[in-house]
Design brief:
Blueprint (H helix, E strand, L loop, with lengths): L1 H23 L6 H6 L6 H11 L3 H14 L1 H28 L4 H9 L1 H34 L3 H9 L1
Helix pairs in contact: 4-5, 4-7, 6-7, 7-8
């Protein structure tokens, strides 16, 4: 019984997120609307969005585990990330905004040329595969345990 309810909740939630995504899919007209909200988003909402993007299932699964096993190590690492965000917001963000670029790849092409930009994109793509894997693994682990699905299949469905 519980497994059926869990499965239904996960599928209904996934369908809801997909429907919201499809609803707003047509609103992005260009890069500026996608990356900067057409510059219509107040700074504090943009900051809140960035803050929330740091949270994932891994935040609670992995960091909770690290805190349980090692105590203040997890807290110390999280605080250094907080300090890094403050430095970025106060000192780096104003300089970035002054460049007029929306993405790092755009900035690299402007400053260093297209060949360096393509190298950057290749490296970034390769690193992103590992980052996304580390984000999807805890989600797949939660789905696997809560629904009783095999881990590999849960990971594959999580990628879709």
């Amino acid at each position: 019984m519980n497994s059926t309810i869990d499965t239904a909740v996960i599928f209904i939630f996934s369908a809801f997120v997909l429907a919201i995504g499809m609803l707003f899919a047509r609103t992005g007209r260009n890069l500026k609307s996608f990356f900067a909200g057409g510059e219509a988003v107040p700074w504090f909402i943009g900051g809140l969005s960035l803050f929330m993007s740091f949270f994932s299932a891994g935040t609670f699964v992995a960091w909770g585990s690290i805190a349980y096993k090692h105590g203040w190590v997890a807290v110390t690492i999280q605080w250094t990330m907080c300090l890094g965000a403050i430095v970025t917001g106060l000192f780096l963000s104003p300089r970035w905004r002054a460049t007029g670029n929306l993405t790092a790849a755009e900035f690299i092409r402007e400053r260093l040329g297209e060949r360096v930009q393509k190298t950057y994109i290749g490296i970034f793509t390769l690193v992103s595969v590992f980052i996304k894997g580390s984000v999807l693994y805890p989600v797949a682990k939660l789905v696997s345990i809560s629904l009783g699905f095999p881990l590999v299949e849960s990971t594959i469905w999580g990628c879709l």
